[in-house]
Amino acid sequence: xTFSLKDRLDAxxxxxxxxxxxxxxxxxxxxxxxxPERLMAAMRHGxxxxxxxxxxxxxxxxxxxxxxxxxxxxxxxxxxxxIHCYSLVHDDLPAMDDDDLRRGRPTVHRAFDEATAxxxxxxxxxxxxxxxxxxxxxPDPAVRIALVRALARASGIGGMVGxxxxxxxxxxxxxxxxxxxxxxxxxRDLQAMKTGALLAVSVEAGALLGGATADERAALLxxxxxxxxAFQIADDILDVEGTAEEVGKKVGKDxxxxxxxxxxxxxxxxxxTLLDRLVADASAAxxxxxxxxxxxxxxxxxxxxxxx
Amino acid sequence: xTFSLKDRLDAxxxxxxxxxxxxxxxxxxxxxxxxPERLMAAMRHGxxxxxxxxxxxxxxxxxxxxxxxxxxxxxxxxxxxxIHCYSLVHDDLPAMDDDDLRRGRPTVHRAFDEATAxxxxxxxxxxxxxxxxxxxxxPDPAVRIALVRALARASGIGGMVGxxxxxxxxxxxxxxxxxxxxxxxxxRDLQAMKTGALLAVSVEAGALLGGATADERAALLxxxxxxxxAFQIADDILDVEGTAEEVGKKVGKDxxxxxxxxxxxxxxxxxxTLLDRLVADASAAxxxxxxxxxxxxxxxxxxxxxxx
Lengths: 308, 308
Known about the structure:
2 copies of one chain form a homodimer.
Chain A: H1 5-23, H2 37-47, H3 54-64, H4 70-91, E1 101-102, E2 105-106, H5 108-111, H6 114-133, H7 141-155, H8 160-170, H9 184-209, H10 214-241, H11 244-247, H12 253-257, H13 262-266, H14 268-285, H15 294-305
Antiparallel strand pairs in A: 1-2
Helix pairs in contact in A: 1-3, 1-4, 2-6, 3-4, 3-9, 4-6, 4-9, 7-9, 8-9, 9-10, 10-14, 10-15, 14-15
GO cellular component, one term (chains A, B): cytoplasm
Cofactor (chains A, B): Mg(2+)
Keywords (chains A, B): Isoprene biosynthesis, Magnesium, Metal-binding, Transferase
């Protein structure tokens, strides 16, 4: 290997952090009247200074397969990170998962208050589409609007938002409190929507930015879906094996809630086997890109073996 | 007058209702995995079967100034209505305005639960941008992406979301509970953001759909801003003078909360005078459109005199 994955992760994280900070500056943009100070502080708390920035990395590295420089992919990457961050802010709310800690810091509603956290999430979600609409996302309006469509589908009703709905239902929230005994397929649907869709659309965005052929786009989507599934299984394994200190949030939550995951359904050894197979599938999907696919293949391994 | 405003309001409301129902159908679209039943039911509860559909009317009638038929403007109109409906669902939440009643029916978190209401709002917000991304919104991607940009700016940090933040702050929510004694300018900022921005972007959307010149777009924006300000003053007057039965939601809330409005700041007679002036300003802004501007001019009168 002639590259360091850590260096590349760090580089895309730094570029994303800078673009996010610019997007969350205090000065109002054309079409805005003013930016309320408390709202901006809450949005910055929820979006800046933390996170692996895995989704931006996937956008930037997928675009790089087509020769697109990082500075031309970072705006779309930042838009997707805004969606990820808003989902964390809303999922952490007392009415949802009721978490006090995120990335080792107080969640937005703990650092501010519930109303502010709801609005900060709404603001980040809206900002994502604002970012995609600007010329710095891509010079061609047709590419920008394709990004809007792909991101809306991945993060809305039939994607991330729907996945969180299924997750709350799985906990038994709407059926008397007893967790649902979901079949393996239903767990896969839930996870593909809740976390997989946004990871998959990240590589799809890279394909759109790079003007990929239909075959290349399909290959990247297959990679993204395998990576997304691997990510969630790794997360479920960490919830069983990790410590709060490592992970930066509460662990053991799934078991405590009696929640159906692929780990609880298949058992730890079978879940590990499945995880290995998904990593292999992800790498295999990258075959059309030859040696250029090495960074994304290494990223799949990283996602499967991460400790936080 | 050779038209009936009521008939035109009814026609755009019916077209919007039909487009919304289609967008909120149970079947998953390409790029979606499945649409969870409870989420769809909550989104339909929050979006269908109620409301004046004033914003869609403004989109459709503004586009009509440029000869655009209603069926070519209804998708963008529906996108803006999705934003309006999501804002109501989130604003009604216990952590925000804590309302039990909306349009004479239980609010979404009362009919379902808080978590579902948060997700239904997130879903509607995301759906708005999905709708704008489709070819039925407009055949030209450049127009569609301009709509995305305008709507994101009007509804985000420096628009509607920011306005709700300022509104909560004005109630004294973050300063010990005593309502802030806002100056007239600060009240105008708050109202222009909280309700004015989305009304103004509705007519701006019509201008974008119609390929308006810069002058025509500026004229429509001036109309939209005057209309938005008039709408909010009429709302504040209704909160003082209306009954819950007429209005379909609690009244007397502003006075009970000691909230600064232009009515409380200026007194009822001066607020009425200002309202009349805004209606005149709105009509005057339509001068470039000659007789074709009559429907929108009549709409400004309607907004000022409405009882619900």
